[in-house]
Amino acid sequence: MTLPRDRLITSLVDDLAPVRRRAPVASPTVAWLVLGALFVTTCYLFVQPFRPGFLGQLLAAPRFAAETALGIASAALLCAGGLALAVPALGSPWRRLAPALAALGAWATLNLYAFIEPALAVSMLGKRSGCIWEVLLAGTPPLVLLLWLARRRWPLHGAVNGLALGLGAGALAATLMQLACLYEPTHNLFFHVLPGLALGGIGMAAGAYFLRAR
After folding, report:
1. 187-200, pLDDT tens digit by residue?
2. For the whole model, what pTM was predicted?
3. Which residues have C-beta within 8 Å of that of residue 53, sequence separation ≥ 6?
C-alpha cells in the first residue's frame, strides 16, 4: 500500500539522528606534525646521531633552510589537505589538494636544483648505511595514524586521500633524514626524497582499501 507523500516523508525522517560536525583540521594537523616529528627523530637517533653541525648549516645556508622549511610545510599541508578531503564536500579532490601539492612540488624542485648548485658543501659526514629503509620504516607509523584519523571522517576519495596522506608522511620522514644523513644531491634524491614519495604510493594503495566509502 502506497503511503501519502507527507506520511512517507515523516516515516523517512523519524529515525534520523543529528550528525556531529567534524572538528577543523588545524588541531589534528599540528598534533600529528609534532608527534610525527618526535617519532621519526627518535627512530633516526636510535640508529645513530644526526649529522654533526646540521643546525649551523640551517642558519648559514638560506637555501638549505628553505628546503627544510618547504619539506615540513609540505608535510603539514598534505596532512591538513588529506584530512579535509576526508570530509565529503563539493569540488574536485585534486583542486582541493592543489596548495599542498604545489608546496610539495616546490620542495622537490629545490632538491633537483641542488644538482646545478648544491645548497651545502658536498660531504660524507653523517653517512648512514640504511637511510632509504629508515625513511620508509619511520614514515609508516605516522601514515597509519593519518589513515586512522581520515577513516573517522567519512572519506569518499580513498585512493586520492591515501596518496595525500602518504606524501605528507613521506615528506616529513625525508626532510628529517636530510638533516640526519650526509649531504650529496644524488644521494639525497634517491635515498631520501624518492623513498618519501614512495610512501605516497603506499598511502594510495592503503587508502583505496581502508578509506573506501562506507
Report:
1. 999 999 999 999 99
2. 0.88
3. 125
